[in-house]
Amino acid sequence: MHKATTGDSPHWRCGPAFTCGRSATKTRTRRSAWSALTAAGENVDVRYVTIDDVRWELNGGQPLTPPPQSDPLTYSASSNRQNAIKLLRDAATVIVVAGDAVPSVHLHAHNGSLDEIIRILACVRGRRVLLGPMANHVLANADAYAGLFDALHTHTITSKDIAVGSRAGAPFEKLRADRDSFIDLVGELGWEPVGEIELYRGCTRRRYCSFCNEPVKSAAVVFRDLQDVLDEVHQLYVAGVRHLRLGQQTCFFSAWNRDVTKIEQLLAGIRDGCPDLEVLHIDNADPLAVASPAGARISALVAQYCSEGNCAPMGMESFDPAVIETNALTCTPQILRRAIDNINAVGTQRGPAGLPTLLPGINIIYGLPGETHRTHLANLQGLDSLMTAGVMCHRTNVRQARAYAGTPLAGMNADIPPSQEHFTTWKADIDSIWDQPMKQRVYPVGLRLRGLHSFFVTGRGTWFRRLGSYPIQVVERDAVVPHYTPADLTVTEHAPRFIYGVRDAG
Ligand code: SF4
């Protein structure tokens, strides 16, 4: 089923850190690398392996965690697992996709570290190319990694620049010209992928938040042609992808400058062209856009066309006015409340699987300039007032600021923020006053959730979920259930970041 080789050296692509292909950014980056290699020559044989495949082989064809527990280091298997190292050794070109734009933690996947990648590259005889956020790190430490890679691509890769490297995203037309079929790629994945779709690059605001590296990645706002998006979606659908997330851009609601008509054409076009799609979700929303009159109409469209369990994560970042002011943040507590109300007005009804159709998510950042102990109090008060108001929220992400090169934050002289010492306890406070009670509200005891599947086993039990955007994870205590076993579960208990349930008998 792969393209035939004609005596050319085959081109392989190694994708370390493919956090299960289910993690957002890398699915799109992986596709662009696949397309670039495929378009680079006639009869090129392109293959895909994961860092997990290589770890598996280096460990003698065994997981690193003994069964029955699942192993996050070797979990994501491609169809090339049995000869991953030979593929890498013999390839004419190896493109390594690595690094996270935003730090993320996954139960069932561990990103490949640079040390791991260096070790693996020792066996590669062909051209070595690095693609993704890790390229920025290598560029910033050029002396330490001199000679390790033949080309570095920080954002995208195309057939025309594989060997020379690139420091900015390629024009969408060039990516479109390389794109052909994803049938072979999807056929090599040992899991059900969620296809991540990008609608535009850049931030539509005039003044940028201090911590954000999106304006560094793309100084200008560039929207994709609608038909280009629909074509890519259809190519994925033809390849067998049934789960999609419109999530690579900074705000789904700001696509084409909040053009409600065009956004409806997008959603309706996807539904028309992909009648058997199982999941259609969005990601990333600027609360300012969601709170606007256009935002209210777009929320209704998302509820109408997308599938249940959907989430619009919004960057509140901080409820503290001093932090908001110092860092030019986009949101205030009042704007957030209007945005949540717009989403809750159309999204709280449950679908056939028992999940709310569309709920907001909230992102909080600690460690920004201007932070004091009062910042944490303001955050707790802000969340508590939302809880008292009865809103429904899907998930909350609390993280520490990271000063990316080129952002205003990187140039700001600030005192050491108190969260440096208190982050763990402050996060635990939010868990107890907000996250766990919200889980109880959204997933009450006795609620039946349908159409889940098991995907991981830990000492706690077996973890179940549906695919999608930040899906709720349901643990069946002390159970050992084979991966991908379908199940319906009834909610029994709550933790801050997941819930417990029991499987229906039979
Ligand atoms: S956080 Fe969002 S609103 Fe702020 S600069 Fe980044 S993309 Fe723009």
From TrEMBL:
Q: Which residues form a coiled coil?
A: none
So which residues are the signal peptide here? Answer: none
Which SUPFAM superfamilies is this protein grouped with? Radical SAM enzymes
Provide the Elp3/MiaA/NifB-like radical SAM core domain boundaries. Answer: 193-428
Q: Tell me the GO molecular function terms.
A: catalytic activity; iron-sulfur cluster binding
The lineage's top-level taxon is: Bacteria
Question: Which InterPro entries does the record cross-reference, listed alphabetically?
Answer: Elp3/MiaA/NifB-like_rSAM, rSAM, rSAM_horseshoe, rSAM_sf
Q: Which PANTHER family match?
A: PTHR43324, RADICAL SAM CORE DOMAIN-CONTAINING PROTEIN
* Protein name as annotated: Radical SAM protein
